[in-house]
Amino acid sequence: MNVLIIGGAGYIGSHVVREFLDHGHNVTVFDDLSSGLRENLFPEATFFHNTILEYPALLAACRGTSDTNGFDAVVHLAAFKAVGESMLQPEKYSLNNISGTINILNAMADTGIKYMVFSSSAAVFGQPQYIPLDEKHPLDPESYYGFTKLEIERIMGWYDNLKGIRFASLRYFNAAGYDARGRITGLEQNPTNLIPVIMETAVGMRKELTIFGNDYDTRDGTCVRDYIHVNDLSVAHAAALDYICKNNKSLKLNLGSETGATVLEILESARRITGRPIPSIFSGRRSGDPKALTASSKLAWELLGWKAELSDVDTIIRSTWEVYKRKGIKV
Ligand code: UDP
User: Fold this and answer.
1) What 3 state SS string does 22-91 have?
2) Ligand 1 site-directed mutation target among 197, 217, 225, most atoms within 8 Å of CB
3) Which of 172, 226, 232, 315 has the largest count of CB atoms under 10 Å?
């Protein structure tokens, strides 16, 4: 298939691009490089450097070149994703995440592209009422970031009804790890997520890890999250696109490993695998953090035959360390 991957130079996007190339798809990447990196691009994929906020450029990209003769599908991963920032600068998230996606849907409608795989998030659920979270769990985002993802899911529902654009909305839990075959090595800039912060501490770019809260009602007092390897996530994107094309039906799926790890378990694995001390301190809880969040992957298994294969903590940490130990700068 001819697939346009928007946000394909980013951390998750580049892994998804690799997966689609491995499946023999003809891939074009569209990215504004605001957080994506040139070093994440593959020579086999055509690259458009532009923003989804520039409608004419986006429309031209969606039309494709004479080589591709248009696209069969879009994979959309271009969004801002910092939860804390979204509460301080909602305008930025309204514009890029919501308006940007409306541009993409309009360009798809204009150019006749019928399928879209969208990066959604567990943040659409808000505080869990039960775990593991299945797709029927109530939707009540706590952050403006989560709200943008939920709003986009609703808009995609309307474009499905009105324009026949079928979508797969994939609610990622905690995406982590690096390509198991070492083909992607771009480091996220100014990360706030736990595992890159731990890695930056391991290589000396940060003094210490601050652990947000150790008084939760969990097995060691720190929060439980469902870490899912980016290679597993990427496989799900390809399988979800197959599903919506074959069944001509949209889909919303939770993607996690069904198991949870605490902050201290992640840190212990990182200390063991890296052999570095990784100093840490405890601080107060981070606002809005639920004590535990894990995904049910039952529906993904039933519909796509998908389950996580590489998402055990040590595999995630080892694959991440492979990248950081080569590239981390000691300061
Ligand atoms: N966390 C932490 N210190 C950090 C970053 C994260 O203790 O510097 C904790 C955070 O409170 C949460 C878990 O690690 O319990 C995962 O956080 P992350 O921001 O990676 O993902 P989230 O679950 O918020 O999407």
Assistant:
1) HCCCEEEEEECCCCCCHHHCCCCCEEEECCCCCHHHHHHHHHCCCCCCCCCEEEECCCCCCHHHHHHCHH
2) 225
3) 226
Atom of ligand 1 nearest to the CA of 195: 20
Q: Is 211 in the pocket of ligand 1 (CB under 6 A)?
A: yes
Residues 110 and 238 in one domain: yes
Count how many domains the chain has.
2
Sequential pLDDT tens for the chain (331 residues): 999 999 999 999 999 999 999 999 999 999 999 999 999 999 999 999 999 999 999 999 999 876 666 899 999 999 999 888 999 999 999 999 999 999 999 999 999 999 999 999 999 999 999 999 999 999 999 999 999 999 999 999 999 999 999 999 999 999 999 999 999 999 998 899 999 999 999 999 999 999 999 999 999 999 999 999 999 999 999 999 999 999 999 999 999 999 999 999 999 999 999 999 999 999 999 888 899 999 999 999 999 999 999 999 999 999 999 999 987 655 4
Residues 139 and 272 in one domain: no
For residue 194, report the distance from its CA to the centre of ligand 1, in Å. Answer: 5
Whether 172 is catalytic: no
Task: Give yes or no: residues 32 and 157 share one domain.
Answer: yes
Question: What's the domain range around 145?
Answer: 2-176+227-255
Which residue in the block uniquely carries the two structure tokens 């474009």? 159
The CATH number of the domain where 273 resides is what? 3.90.25.10
113 to each of 11, 78, 105, 166, how far by Cα in Å? Answer: 25, 18, 9, 10
Q: Is this structure's pTM higher than 0.85?
A: yes
Residue of 93, 115, 145, 243 marked active site: 145
Residues 262 and 232 placed together within one structural domain of the fold: no
Both 16 and 131 in one domain: the answer is: yes
